[in-house]
Amino acid sequence: MSGQLGAVLALTLAILTYYYCQHESNMLSITSKVKLNNGNTIPQFGLGVYQAKPGEVAENAVLIALKTGYRFIDTAAGYRNEKDVGEALKKSGIPREEVFISTKVNNCDQGYKKTLAAFNNSMEQLGLDYLDLYLLHSPNPGPRKRKESWLALEELVKKGLIRNIGVSNYGKHHLDELLEYCTIKPVVNQIEIHPWLTRVELVEYCRKLNIAVEAYSPLAKGKKLDDERLLNLARKYSKEPAQILLRWSLQHGYIVFPKSDREERIKTNADIFNFELDNDDMKVLDDCDEYFTTGWDPTKNP
Ligand SMILES: NC(=O)c1ccc[n+]([C@@H]2O[C@H](COP(=O)([O-])OP(=O)(O)OC[C@H]3O[C@@H](n4cnc5c(N)ncnc54)[C@H](OP(=O)(O)O)[C@@H]3O)[C@@H](O)[C@H]2O)c1
Ligand SMILES: *[C@@H]1O[C@H](CO)[C@@H](O)[C@H](O)[C@H]1NC(C)=O
Questions:
Q1: Would you state the pLDDT for residue 103?
Q2: What is the pLDDT of residue 19?
């Protein structure tokens, strides 16, 4: 009798464990990763530091984020805070290989030699000896310079100094042009995406090419936080509007890195792994699309 009971209990436990694991594998967390076309991975969630004031403000934001569990920082030479990112990383005491650092070549530094020099400068600022991801900030400098810069990036990968290279603000025609001469494909295209700028066609094109999509300005820089459709969902899920927007990005599979330099928001922006928007509510947000850009839009440039 007790043998039978034991067998029933063991079976029940096995079934529960099976379902738990199935569920768990579908669940997102702050350390969830996205697989790139070169076999490497990138955390799906991180911190952006555009307009985080260089110096103490930027350094503190990054340090708080790392303490909160963020493991990916998106900066750029143009943000003038690479030094602060590097300082925070050192102060955090977290092993280098556990944090994913991404920076970008400034438009004014495009061209072969200039890009190599810009890379040296960024590495010195960051205090790193290898970089996780280096992006061309935009296609704006034109076809000749962006080609030269890309070839410089490929060389840095071959030297083992950069793990992954990608582009930002590239439209379909820029990607087509790049694919004609690259010997290393970009792993990501970093473009502005949120419910008011969904870029459905460009996203589909990137996915067809196996280029991961990084959705920048996921909070639309805070400019749409009073949209009634968003506020309704915030009430329904008992979450902040910003948390609803970040969840929308994650559930679309985008890599996302909201910017804040306030401790409270850095924490709440990461508190998005304990709820899920249902399909109808994802659709409500998808339908907000109105091609609303919050900054520049180089994807349309020649
Ligand atoms: N490649 C490119 O061309 C490009 C362009 C733009 C952005 N990006 C990248 O994408 C990152 C994010 O985009 P973003 O900085 O443009 O804008 P964002 O993340 O969409 O929004 C940031 C703004 O929202 C505020 N905010 C943050 N959390 C909030 C919350 N929980 N509730 C209400 N307001 C909140 C921030 O203010 P506080 O800081 O005061 O909290 C800031 O003003 C950038 O930092 C950068 O890494 C790349
Ligand atoms: C960059 O740094 C490397 C190693 O320190 C050096 O060999 C190279 O000449 C530098 N390149 C430029 C363009 O400054």
A1: 99
A2: 61
**121 CB-near residues (< 8 Å, 6+ apart):** 77
**Residue 79 is a catalytic residue:** yes
The one catalytic residue in 70, 79, 170, 254 is: 79
> pLDDT by residue (tens digit) across 150-165?
999 999 999 999 999 9
How do strand 41-43 and strand 33-35 relate by DSSP bridges? antiparallel
Tokens of 302: 């020649």
Atom of ligand 2 nearest to the CA of 117: 13
The 10s digit of each residue's pLDDT in 163-221 is 999 999 999 999 999 999 999 999 999 999 999 999 999 999 999 999 999 999 999 99
Looking from the CA of residue 61, the nearest atom of ligand 1 is: 39
CA of 299 to the centre of ligand 1 (A): 19
For ligand 2, the distance from its centroid to the CA atom of residue 139, given in whole angstroms, is 25
Q: Measured on CA atoms in the order 81, 84, 263, 246, is the torsion positive or negative?
A: positive
Alpha-carbon gap, residue 63 to 81, rounded angstroms: 13
Q: In 185-302, at which residue ranges do the beta strands (DSSP E only) sit?
A: 188-192, 212-216, 255-256
Ligand 2 neighbour 94 (Cβ under 6 A): no
What spacing in Å lies between the alpha carbon of 15 and ligand 2's midpoint?
58
Which stretches does DSSP call E strand in 243-289? 255-256
Q: How many C-beta neighbours within 10 Å does residue 8 have? A: 10
- Closest-CA residue to 248 (of 283, 209, 290): 283
Nearest to 260 by CA among 53, 27, 115, 19: 53
Residues in the chain: 302
